[in-house]
Amino acid sequence: MSPGLRLWFLLFTILIISAVQPMPARAVASAQRTDAFRSARCMFDLPAGAVESRDVECGYLAVPERYGQPEGPTIELAVAIIKSHAANPAPDPLVMLQGGPGGSTIDTYASLLLSQRPLQIDRDIVLFDQRGTLYSQPNLQCHETFDLLIRTIDKRLSDEEEQQQSLAAITACHDRLVRQGIDLADYDSVENADDVESLRVALGYSTINLYGVSYGTLLALHVMQQHPDALRSVILDAVVPPQINFIEHVPQSQERAFDELFRACAADVACNAAYPKLDQVFFQLVDAWNKKPVRIPLTDPQTNTTYQAVFDGDMLIDATFQMVYATSLIPALPKMIYDARDGTYTFLSYVYPILLFDRTFSEGMYYSVLCAEDADFNPSDVPLEGVRPELAKDARQSAQSFLDTCQRWNVPPLEPIVDAPVTSNIPTLVLNGRFDPITPPAFGQAAAQTLSHSYVFTFANTGHGALIDSPCATS
After folding, report:
1. Which of 55, 117, 240, 276 is most exposed, with the fewest beta carbons within 10 Å of its own?
2. Could you tell me the pTM of the whole model?
3. Which has the closest alpha carbon to 462: 443, 446, 440?
4. What is the rounded distance in angstroms from the CA atom of residue 364 to the CA atom of residue 143?
5. Strands, E, within 129-252: which ranges?
């Protein structure tokens, strides 16, 4: 879910730079905060022109590691409050929830909101890194899996070798975190939703407005269920409803997104003239690369090391699938496919490393959340009706691999009630993207069926998450 969104924001920040206009400092009539929040220097590098205290306040929120044991160990959540420059800001802030699970809200949004200020709203924006993610302590990042990537990026492994080494890396990460005294069973959506309420109380807000994207929508729905009186309004962008296990539906969601991409090109006169029969070209290339992989230079942007990565057809499917997440990349994909067919890999070499070498994602948080909430299915029941053979061939094995990983991660399942549809009358805006490859519009429509004051809109040209990509959604 969130890797594609993170890729978009990284590209957005790289490609578009604007100056921050100086704004006068304002005196904030602070609500009654509690000692659970302590101010601190910002944990990220501020963009040029942004000033602490004037533009942003940072700090850490202390919360129980397990709310059922309030006197037990505590953890700290990183917080960044982006201050409104309105003369009379509204008292209820916008609190933003990143996806993943495991993505960093602060890393994704803080610099963008401080440098571009795309959300010109009359209230503060509160960002916090969810428990287990980048700037919060502890974080559940798995350097073991990143190290495995570096060791194997230029090798072609069999499916069995890849699965074996992946499980070994995940197991090593699990064991290391447990040795550090971290109870991985405490990093789930229920505890995460209680953190949102703790944040509201600690910062002294009577009510908040909640924006969630991808997994952040599922978290927002849990907050709606657990703490409805805390919310003035909710925005769900690229929706993961609790009653649908998105993992079971990955093959069909993938099929739908590729279909939308190919149909959109075929329906556009210029695209169809330049890149005819795009679907045939793509899957012929997948077949050719699976028979004879190519090597594509990929440069780690942090170390500047270039690897001659082995790319087979299945990797091409995965890379293209991830790029459909990012709205700004979708128009470039037909050319990327034709270029790759002709032996030109410039686009893949430039864009894919931003996603592949990401060091901000918390893989441990990903498995703690999803293994507790979504590991209750049988791979043989994964629906494959209407899915192309190239997309279906490994789908059930991939589902089994997820369950095997969850067995190693060893967290208990949440109660079945967490899979129930959320019923609420909180005003809720539901945003879907036509090309969204992982949370299709039907997911947003399903969530809205039990939200009596909801409005659903599907954007015709967006991928996974409409915020910033669409002036309408941003407004």
Report:
1. 276
2. 0.93
3. 440
4. 10
5. 208-213, 231-237
